[in-house]
Design a protein that fits this description.
GO terms for molecular function: GTP binding; GTPase activity; guanosine tetraphosphate binding; translation release factor activity, codon nonspecific; translation release factor activity, codon specific. One of its GO terms (biological process) is regulation of translational termination. InterPro entries: EF-G-like_DII, EFG_III/V, G_TR_CS, P-loop_NTPase, PrfC, RF3_C, RF3_dom_3_sf, RF3_GTP-bd. By secondary structure, the protein is α+β, with helices and mostly antiparallel strands. The chain folds into three domains: 16-58 and 107-271, Rossmann fold; 278-376, Rossmann fold; 390-524, 2-Layer Sandwich (Alpha-Beta Plaits). The strands form eight sheets. The protein has an eight-stranded antiparallel β-sheet with strand order 28-25-27-26-30-31-29-32. The chain has a seven-stranded mixed β-sheet with strand order 2-3-1-4-5-11-6, with helices on both faces. Helix 8 packs across helix 9 and helix 12 (405-418) crosses helix 13. The longest helix is centred in the middle third of the chain and has 16 residues, at 218-233. The protein is globular. Mean pLDDT is 86; it is low at 38-68. The structure holds guanosine-5'-diphosphate. Residues 17, 19-25, 47, 88, 139-140, 142-143, 254-257 line the site of guanosine-5'-diphosphate.
């Protein structure tokens, strides 16, 4: 197969959804269809429904399992699909955001009983930064859900994206009969009790087909009326608008009943973009470029309890990875030979022989790789757009045993490198302030400091409302600002100057007083 063909058949996507909308269940069914697992239901243990903290501990225990779902590659239709998992726990995570920089499209899953929920809104904001194409799956049609037209209106209004229904549901809850495919003029009938297998679907061609009346009775006439209405009131599918992130094809079904997920996969493989270009500080790198490039979007520690290693997840942007190849670690200006990159197909860490643009590979990291690092075939360029988010929660971290300051600092810097947490050191004192986007991160950090760095640490509350990275057009201006705002400034884990605001009002005043300084809530590596 030519390099162009290798790239053209790849589809790299992630699922965005609010917790409990059905992401895990859909992932299971996607893998079932991708023939990775025989019987759906083996991706993750049943949720305990307990507090998020125990969820994380459990995740830690089940790491072997949850990690295999970090990146899943499987064939579908004529494509090779990469599904990138986003962290599953209740907490809000920066990892999720960064994972979204490594995909070319997203599947948005909505619980049709609930509609658009908070996390989905936030994640959609992130996909907007790159106009990522979005496919929508309305889930849980086997329950009594909200009116389908109202749901689409809500998506259009709240998320500001046009909806083009590809399928349309017939009934819901106990009387969910299946879906009508508006493009193909076909009804696909749903049968219950087949959630764990690939169903043999019954198709009825043509909405006016009398077979339909025989199959679903009065629902047939209702469907005909409704479809007329839907066709008049909704958008037609338009590939260009989809690719521009302005219109989403919408599918309906039930992940639990394994109905509709394959319809969505058909759409995804047919329409979602092949690996896309990515911007660097020097030029735009096209996926078809034969020179190897890639960037690291995630670092995960202790994936294998037997090897205390850390794995850096790299998205290949162009060219080909071959086992044993040499790559340039651009930030360090060093060439490294990579013989043991890993992938996570079907539950085992398999060694990758080769991989192409759009694929994700895992590099063993012994502390030299950071989130945002670029690797190339020798060229000095750096991928841009891998975000760090200003934390919203802050605590002072303190040692139980003051003699272990070195370990604490080392641990925090490494955890900050991974993106597990952010660390700020005020200019005016020796405090260590931990900043997080979600509360769960605090627990994770103390737990990991104890188990991995043998440091007992505890938190104290601190009067910080928010933080902003600060930049100015010239060093001189930044120096001046540094003197004036000294008491509010700190350095983050990578020594970037940060404004630490005790209140939002304080931040507002600082912004007004210093128009020469930019206060950034998102920083790109
Ligand atoms: P996640 O938090 O988004 O990963 O959601 P899960 O996949 O864990 O699903 C949350 C809950 O919704 C679980 O109890 C699932 O069994 C249930 N669920 C998922 N899909 C469906 C569906 O299509 N119908 C029904 N009735 N329940 C579903």
């Amino acid at each position: 197969m030519s390099p162009e063909q290798e790239v053209a058949k790849r589809r790299t996507f992630a699922i965005i959804s609010h917790p409990d909308a059905g992401k895990t269940t859909i992932t299971e069914k996607v893998l079932l269809h991708g023939a990775l697992i025989q019987k759906a239901g083996t991706v993750k243990g049943k949720k305990s429904g307990q507090h998020a903290k125990s969820d994380w501990m459990e995740m830690e225990k089940e790491r072997g399992i949850s990690v295999t779902t970090s990146v899943m590659q499987f064939p579908y239709a004529d494509c090779l699909v990469n599904l990138l998992d986003t962290p599953g726990h209740e907490d809000f995570s920066e990892d999720t955001y960064r994972t979204l920089t490594a995909v070319d499209s997203c599947l948005m899953v909505i619980d049709a009983a609930k509609g658009v929920e908070a996390r989905t809104i936030k994640l959609m904001e992130v996909t907007r930064l790159r106009d990522t194409p979005i496919i929508t799956f309305m889930n849980k049609l086997d329950r009594d859900v909200r009116d389908p037209i109202e749901l689409m209106d809500e998506v259009e209004e709240v998320l500001n994206i046009a909806c083009a229904p590809i399928t349309w549901p017939i009934g819901m809850g106990k009387s969910f009969k299946g879906v009508y495919n508006l493009l193909e003029d076909t009804v696909i009938l749903y049968s219950t009790g087949q959630g764990s297998v690939i169903q043999e679907e019954r198709h009825i061609e043509g909405i006016d087909n009398p077979d339909l009346d025989a199959a679903i009775g009065d629902y047939a006439a209702e469907l005909r009326d409704e479809i007329e209405l839907v066709r008049g009131a909704s958008h037609d599918f338009d590939l260009d608008l989809f690719l521009a992130g302005e219109l989403t094809p919408v599918y309906w079904g039930t992940a639990l009943g394994n109905f509709g997920v394959d319809h969505m996969l058909e759409g995804l493989t047919q329409w979602a973009p092949a690996p896309q270009s990515r911007a660097t500080d020097v030029r735009t790198v096209e996926a078809a470029d034969t020179r190897f490039t890639g960037f690291v979007f995630k670092i995960q520690a202790n994936m294998d309890p037997n090897h205390r290693d850390r794995v850096a997840f790299m998205r290949i942007v162009s060219g080909r990875y071959e086992k044993g190849m040499k790559m340039r670690h651009v930030r360090l200006g060093k060439d490294v030979r990579i013989a043991d990159a890993v992938t996570f197909v079907a539950g085992d860490r398999a060694q990758v022989e080769d991989a192409w643009a759009g694929d994700i590979i895992g590099l063993h990291n012994h502390g030299t790789i950071q989130i945002g690092d670029t690797f190339t075939a020798g060229e000095a360029l750096k991928f841009t757009g891998i975000p760090n988010f200003a934390p919203e929660l802050f605590k002072r971290i303190r040692l139980k045993d003051p003699l272990k300051t070195k370990q604490l600092q080392k641990g925090l810097v490494q955890l900050a490198e991974e993106g597990a947490v952010q660390v700020f050191r005020p200019l005016r004192n020796n405090d260590l302030i931990v900043g997080a986007v979600g509360a769960l991160q605090f627990d994770v950090v103390v737990h990991r400091l104890r188990t991995e760095y043998k440091v007992e640490a505890l938190y104290e509350s601190i009067n910080v409302a928010t933080a902003r990275w600060v930049m100015a057009d010239s060093e001189r201006e930044l120096e001046k600002f540094r003197d004036k705002a000294y008491d509010n400034l700190a350095l983050d884990g990578a020594n970037n100057l940060t404004y630490i605001a005790p209140t939002m009002v304080n931040l507002q005043l600082a912004i007004e007083r210093h128009p020469e300084v930019r206060f950034l809530a998102i920083r790109e590596n």
